[in-house]
UniProtKB/TrEMBL annotation:
Compartmental location: Nucleus; Chromosome, Telomere
Location (main, coarse): nucleus
Root EC class: transferase
Function according to Swiss-Prot or TrEMBL: Telomerase is a ribonucleoprotein enzyme essential for the replication of chromosome termini in most eukaryotes. It elongates telomeres. It is a reverse transcriptase that adds simple sequence repeats to chromosome ends by copying a template sequence within the RNA component of the enzyme.
EC number: 2.7.7.49
Annotated region (Disordered), positions in chain: 165-254
GO annotation terms (biological process): telomere maintenance via telomerase
Biased composition (Polar residues): 238-247
Any one annotated GO CC term: telomerase catalytic core complex
Protein name: Telomerase reverse transcriptase
InterPro entries: RT_dom, Telomerase_RBD, Telomerase_RT, TERT_C, TERT_TEN
Keywords: Chromosome, Magnesium, Metal-binding, Nucleotidyltransferase, Nucleus, RNA-directed DNA polymerase, Telomere, Transferase
Family per similarity comment: Belongs to the reverse transcriptase family. Telomerase subfamily.
Length: 1047
């Protein structure tokens, strides 16, 4: 057991096994106990002594159960947060209904199964060996973990690891696994202390700039002046009031509120009447309210509204700003810079009288280009904001460039205040200098002025620009271009939504009145009302339900043990949160009974297992590979056509237990970029499951529900219990009475389930799995056929042409009986139908495409389908981080892009040739090189590019790919012992293919990457002997289409 490579080494400096602890005490445990003690890890930091001296060491005067109870009581008295104390509390005076433990002062609020594990027989033997005092010391003063399968750990006592701070050690000690790191830290610290004074002064100045938000802005009295008396409860003359917690604390971590401009609910082109600029008049009170909304100098309403001295000189400027806004002709400027198409003018007003049919695709293309939106916002901001508030022409140009950057960002990208402030000269803002003229021009003076400028610029973007855009445009992404943002004029969007809603009303939705909705909520017939947004796709508008944010939710019948006040949820519950226990319970039942899903697959490794089985069956029955016939089918609108009554009947049949327990715990591990990640995980089990937490985690790892290596698990103790009847009642409300709010109307869903529900994919798999189990599996899942489904995409491969035609006819004829229709536009076959060439024959040579994969029907080889990215920009599917740690974010995205594609399906030699496996690995890294260029360009524009950091990141990629590939093979062999799956590609070859892929891509972009190319070429020379048998010329020729993928 290597403790250095675990997540524990990031938190603790001293790591020992319990057997090593016993050896330090000169104790010899028996052989039967030694193996168990090797799995127990004791962890502590330098502040805690690991081996204190005790007078009665090794003596046992009490039972281990008594010691455990007294330790819990002691920790509760000291109010220490410890894993042992979770679920226990001291008895309140006069509280009669308390479940008492071994101590008369402690009551049980929730069963702590970790304490149950510590009360087993083997721990009594450990206690008999170590004695009372050492066991008390271990339970109360250090952290203890037990090692389980896959080098994982479960915490038994100590401060919960999710509450620990990383790298807590500060003194040099050689006792722990990180002693070498500590020595280096201390050495570097001593070198800095012995450095020149000028370097120390520079570091102090840099530290002052970094911690500017901690400086308090105070109006200190100048020398030889009397102190002014305090004024009673008014806006004081101190500048300290403007720097409260509501202002921007750190421009690096302060994000602009960009997400609020998306999906406007109102289709009126009108600025909000509740906005501060509309509510305020150019009077003293209006100016006071405006300045207070910008600089936050008065958190509470005051009896005497008085401007602070430092803002008094800006009064006339903001009065001019208010006057300019009142005179602004917003609609006229909008029509001039962002004109509506001529064919759409009046369509949204006289929709009933208009005889002209408006084409959907033409309307979907009638968005406003970003350049026109920028010109309009530039004109509006120039007309509203007075010249002196820009500071200078240079500052104005810099801020307008930031506005363009703000408009062109993708859906989930965020901008920090620092990126907007880059290039802004605070010395040019002379309007704030007059307010601070009494202050000496020191570093603190500059920080005060910079703080005021930051608050004003943040207000421009978050409170002026965002409401302007939301008032005049409907801003959304599309299904075709993924994260790319489109700006639709509201009249255009009104027409587009009307065209898209027309086929949905009456079939999928029906309108209901507000009174009906209120009656359903009052009678608890529905869970709540969710928002519906529409996303334009290639041929239709998709209705997406937002069930993940705060909604009005009726109380559900939840039998849960009430957690302590510190753990109570503060945010209102959402519909998806209410449905989560049912989702986890269905996943629990379907995991242990795979026939519920039919031929459905949910993970890429399942595709590999079934394809490998099919290949082995073909090889055992035929001397050579037979001719294969393939069919790819897609179910049309699968979520919208699910039969509701049938779904409810299936759920009642699947949920066989009377109750289910939702166990919540923390999963801590080292992430791909070297940091420690913490994730809350919930799993459902039988309501009568009484196993302790350690045994529960072991069982879940063994059966495959929990996956991971070097992971630490910490129990949360407070579990949620759901009865079968309450969950059936809840899902009936969700399916039968799903009400959505689409801006100006309420829609009740007639069929199917809302897209966006946490249950949608699971119920879809269960519904089609039941159909497949009853009617399809017995006929089509044979030794000579390959039959799988991914959500709504079927893939059928067989050696019999007659069976392939029968499958196609049966699916086309029988699927409508179950409420489903085939999407003939996406039908793909590689043979003729009814003796004539089919228009659906879409086989590209020998390769057949399905769900992002390519299957060779002649050689049975597999690869990823990168040709689907041709004609699209790869940036549209990415999200760039503009906050702190941009480089680490880039490294994380690259590692994720590589590890996700580390599947045995593309390298296994049972059906892939060596040359095809080499090509697949090369293409994985060539795709990663495309992403690297896109991320590097954004990083270069923002803060510059560190070539050595990029080189180290690229060197990590083949290591991560090889490690994930080995892990996937290890999981497969654990499930299928005796399997001959495997590959013979070494790590050195993977490194060579990775470096070659990056060099081939970067040579097309020589500017700025010459040094990086040189470093990679040097690494290739070192690996030359390992790449002799790789035909790079053939690989490059088969990867020519990568040149057609846009950045």
């Amino acid at each position: 057991m290597n403790l250095n490579s675990t997540a524990l080494s990031s938190y603790f400096c001293k790591l020992f096994t319990l057997s090593q602890f016993a050896q330090k005490l000169s104790l010899q445990p028996p052989q039967s106990l030694l193996k168990f003690m090797d799995t127990i890890v004791i962890a502590t930091n330098h502040q805690t002594e690991i081996l204190p001296t005790f007078a009665n060491a090794g003596k046992c005067l009490f039972t281990f159960g008594d010691i455990l109870d007294r330790s819990i009581e002691r920790l509760l008295d000291l109010k220490q947060n410890n894993v042992l104390c979770l679920g226990f509390s001291l008895i309140r005076e006069g509280y009669k209904r308390a479940c008492i433990t071994g101590s008369n002062r402690v009551q049980i609020k929730a069963p702590n199964t970790t304490v149950m594990y510590l009360k087993t027989r083997i721990w009594k033997d450990v206690h008999a060996l170590l004695g009372d005092e050492f066991m008390v010391h271990i339970l109360q003063n250090v952290s203890m973990f037990v090692a389980i399968e896959n080098d994982c750990f479960v915490q038994l006592c100590g401060l919960p690891l999710q509450d620990e701070n990383e790298s807590k050690c500060t003194t040099p000690d050689l006792c722990g696994p990180v002693g070498e790191k500590e020595r280096k830290k201390v050495t570097n610290k001593r070198r800095r202390q012995n450095s020149e004074p000028s370097i120390q002064q520079a570091s102090k100045k840099r530290k002052l700039n970094e911690n500017f938000h901690k400086a308090t802005i105070q109006n200190k009295n100048p020398p030889n002046h009397r102190k002014t008396p305090k004024t009673p409860k008014t806006a004081t003359t101190s500048i300290k009031n403007t720097t409260n917690k509501t202002g921007p604390q750190d421009p690096e971590s302060t994000f602009l509120k960009r997400s609020k401009m998306f999906y406007s609910k109102s289709l009126l082109q009108k600025f909000s009447s509740s906005h501060i600029l509309n509510k305020s008049e150019p009077t003293n009170k209006g100016i006071y309210n405006l300045l207070n909304s910008i600089f936050k100098f008065a958190n509470k309403p005051l009896k005497i509204e008085r401007l602070p001295k430092h803002l008094f000189h800006t009064k006339n400027l903001f009065k001019t700003l208010l006057t300019n806004f009142k005179k602004l002709k917003l609609r006229r400027l909008l029509n001039f810079y962002c004109p509506l198409p001529k064919w759409i003018i009046g369509q949204h007003l006289r929709a009933k009288r208009s005889r002209r049919k408006v084409d959907y695709q033409q309307t979907a293309r009638a968005f406003t280009p970003v350049r026109q939106v920028y010109l309009w916002t530039r004109k509006v901001l120039s007309n509203v904001i007075p010249p002196l508030l820009w500071g200078s022409e240079r500052n104005k140009k810099t801020l307008l460039k930031a506005v363009l950057l703000f408009l062109t960002r993708r859906r989930y990208e965020r901008l920090t205040l620092r990126s907007v402030m880059k290039g802004i000269k605070t010395s040019h803002f002379t309007c704030f200098e007059q307010s601070l003229q009494s202050h000496p021009k020191t570093a603190q003076y500059s920080l005060k002025k910079e703080r005021l400028v930051q608050m004003f610029i943040q207000w421009i973007f978050s409170e002026l620009l965002v409401p302007l855009l939301k008032a005049c445009f409907y801003i959304t992404e599309t299904g075709t271009h993924r994260n790319k943002v489109f700006y639709y004029r509201k009249p255009v969007w009104s027409v587009l939504r009307r065209i898209g809603m027309k086929p949905l009303l009456g079939t999928l939705f029906r309108t209901v009145s507000r009174n009906t909705v209120n009656e359903m909520l009052a009678s608890k017939r529905c869970i709540g009302v969710h928002d519906i947004r529409f996303i334009p796709s290639q041929k239709k508008v998709r209705a997406i339900a937002n069930l993940t944010k705060g909604h009005v939710v009726t109380p559900s019948n939840v039998n849960a043990i009430a957690p302590p006040a510190t753990l109570k949820r503060k945010k209102p519950s959402t519909i998806n949160n209410e449905l989560r226990p049912l989702h986890l319970s269905l996943c629990y039942e379907s995991f242990f009974k795979s026939s519920l899903l039919g031929v459905g697959v949910t993970r890429p490794d399942q595709i590999f297992e079934k394809w490998l089985e099919f290949v082995n069956n073909c090889k055992s029955q035929y001397k050579c590979i037979p001719k294969l016939y393939a069919i790819s089918l897609d179910i049309k609108r699968c979520f919208d056509t699910l039969p509701q009554d049938r779904i409810l009947k299936l759920i009642s049949e699947i949920l066989k237990e009377d109750s289910y327990v939702i166990k919540k715990f923390v999963k801590i591990k080292n992430s791909q970029n070297g940091c420690v990640t913490k994730k809350f995980v919930s799993l459902a089990t039988d309501g009568f499951d009484c196993t302790n937490f350690v045994s529960f985690i072991r069982e879940q790892i063994k059966c495959g529900r929990l996956v991971g290596q070097n992971v630490v698990f910490v129990d949360k103790v407070f579990y949620r219990c759901e009865t079968r009847d309450s969950m059936l009642s809840l899902v009936t409300k969700h399916i039968k009475c799903s009400i959505g709010n689409a801006s100006d109307r309420y829609l009740l869903q007639n069929t199917g389930i809302a897209q966006g529900s946490i249950l949608a994919t699971t119920l879809n798999n269960i519904h089609y799995g039941d159909i497949e189990t009853k009617y399809l599996v017995s006929t089509y899942q044979t030794l000579e056929s390959f039959f799988i489904r991914w959500v709504d995409d079927y893939f059928f491969v067989t050696t019999s042409l007659q069976l392939a035609r029968k499958f196609l006819n049966d699916m086309n004829r029988n699927m409508p009986n179950y409420g489903a229709n085939l999407n003939l536009d996406k039908l793909s076959v590689n043979f003729k139908i009814s003796g004539q060439p089919s228009s659906s024959e879409r086989c590209q040579g020998d390769w057949f495409t399905w769900c992002g994969y390519l299957f060779n029907l002649q050689t049975m080889e597999c690869c990823y389908n990168y040709m689907q990215y041709i004609g699209e920009s790869i940036k549209d599917g990415m999200t760039f981080q503009y906050g702190s740690h941009r480089g680490l974010s880039m490294a994380k995205q690259l590692v994720l892009a590589v590890t996700v594609k580390a599947s045995p399906l593309i390298v296994d030699e049972n059906f892939n040739s060596i040359s095809n496996a080499h090509k697949n690995i090369y293409q994985v890294f060539r795709y990663a090189a495309l992403k690297f260029l896109a991320l590097a360009q954004a990083l270069r524009q923002d803060q510059g590019l560190n070539i050595m950091f990029c080189f180290r990141t690229i060197k990590k990629l083949p290591l991560k790919f090889h490690k994930r590939l080995q892990q996937n093979y290890q999981k497969h062999r654990s499930k299928h012992p005796g399997s001959k799956a495997g590959h013979s590609i070494s790590l050195q070859k993977i490194k060579g293919l990775c470096y070659q892929a990056f060099v081939d891509k970067l040579r097309r972009h020589q500017t700025g990457y010459k040094r990086l190319i040189g470093l990679l070429v040097f690494e290739l020379k070192l690996l030359k002997e390992h790449l002799v048998d790789i035909d790079l010329t053939d690989i490059r020729e088969r990867s020519q289409y990568f040149k057609m993928i846009k950045l």
